Structure formats: structure tokens, C-alpha cells
Amino acid sequence: MTEWADSALVLRMGHFREADLWLKVLCRGHGLLTLFAFGGSRSRRRFCGCLDVFNSLHCRVSASRRGNFLNLEEAVLLDGPQALRGNWRRMGLAANCLRFMEAMGVTAESAAEAYALAEDLRRTLETAVELPGLFPLFFRLRLAGALGFAPNLERCGQCGAPLDAGGQFVVDEGQMRCPACRAAAGPARYGVELRSAGLDLLRHVQQELPSGWRAAALPAEERRACARAIDGFVQYHLGLAWEEGFFRRV
């Protein structure tokens, strides 16, 4: 029987049968997995009451005899939110971000960076005095980059020119156009104009963890443009849209 140990962050938890639990977890070395904790709602010796959402655990996991599911044999609490659970607004932001991570899926190859991102997300929601207004959208852009889906916001996708004065994000192409290439190509079917301040902010988000994101507000027009660019990229290239509390495939 295969057995291994890893650090894991609980994204979601549910009950099946009377005393058993299932958990969707992000493991630092193994990626996004579903684990089954038999007796998890009763056993204090094996799980110490530590299986709540957003807790970081040290887990001992084994494969079932037939290898068709994974058993959580034991878990020890490493870290978890304190005041965050009492802040329903920020817990709503947390749920949105964790649902996106679950919808995207995380392989073992991307697990370490995604795990660091998720842990920093929890600490930021717990301790930050102020959050950016586009926080959930920023998380989608940042996680997409961690998983290898980052759009290049540094240079024009056609001529390679730097975008010092902003440019147009062409959603269906997933790339930027400089003013010269935009003029030569004519109107884009779905283009979002990004001024230099908005473009600089999106680059900043791609490079930093949530705790480093700037909370200063952009002018409303630039904020809407950033939101449209991120949302368009996620829907068109990642195939996900947030509707009625869930991400659905589009």
C-alpha cells in the first residue's frame, strides 16, 4: 500500500455516511486531491478536530487497497485562520478564490507555487487592513500565472515592442497590441484598452503574492478595464465564469 506525507491546505470539506468526511485539499508536493477521512467527524486522536476549511495540515495519506481513492490516515494542524472566520465579507472572498483554485485544478508540477499563493492568501485576508477592490480577480490572474497560463503584459504580441504607454488587450488572442499594431489591425472583436497605470498594476499582480498587492484604488474607468481584461481572459482561455456562487465551464 502506497503511503506518503505532505503539507496540505483544506479547500473544502463535506460529510458522507455518519462519521466520515471527504476533503478537497491542496498538497504542497502532490497538488489538488480529494482525501477520505474515515471516522473524521469523531476521531480526535487521528485528526484533533483540525479538518476545517483554510487550515494547513501535516497529513499522512495512503492509497486504498485497489488504488482508486486516497485515505487520510492522520492530520496535525500547522496553521489556520483566527479572526478571519468571524469576518463574513472576507470569508466570502476566500471562498471565491478557493473555488477558482478547485475549478482550475493544480498538478504536482505547479503545486509548490500554488500552495505558497494559497497560504499567503489566507494570511492576507486575516491580517491586511485594506484589500484591493479587485481582489478575487487579481487572485485569478495570479493563479493562472502560477499554473502556466499568464498572458504577456510586457510587450506587444505582434511586433514585440514594449508597452510603455499602455495598449490594447485582445481577449480572444490573449495578448497585448501596441498602439501602432492596433491601428494597423483595425478594431478588435473583443479588445480592452489598458492605460499605463492599469497595465502596471496587472503586471505587479502577476509578480507578487497577495500580501504585496497594492490596495490603492485606480480611477473607476481604469478599474473597470482591468476587471474586463481579467474576466475576459479567464472566460475565453480558461473556460470559467463565476455565476451564482460557483465557477461553471463556458
From TrEMBL:
* Annotated keywords: DNA damage, DNA recombination, DNA repair
Q: Which domain of life is it from?
A: Bacteria
Q: Which residues form the DNA replication/recombination mediator RecO N-terminal domain?
A: 1-79
InterPro entries membership = ARFGAP/RecO (IPR037278), DNA_rep/recomb_RecO_N (IPR022572), Lipocalin_CS (IPR022272), NA-bd_OB-fold (IPR012340), RecO (IPR003717), RecO_C (IPR042242)
Biological process (GO), any one:
DNA recombination
* The keyword Magnesium belongs to this UniProt entry's keyword annotation: no
Q: Per the record, what is one GO cellular component?
A: bacterial nucleoid
What is the protein's known function?
Involved in DNA repair and RecF pathway recombination.
Q: Which HAMAP family match?
A: RecO (MF_00201)
The family this protein is said to belong to = Belongs to the RecO family.
Q: What is this protein called?
A: DNA repair protein RecO
Q: Specify the taxonomic lineage.
A: Bacteria, Pseudomonadati, Thermodesulfobacteriota, Desulfovibrionia, Desulfovibrionales
- In the UniProt record, what gene is named as encoding this protein? recO
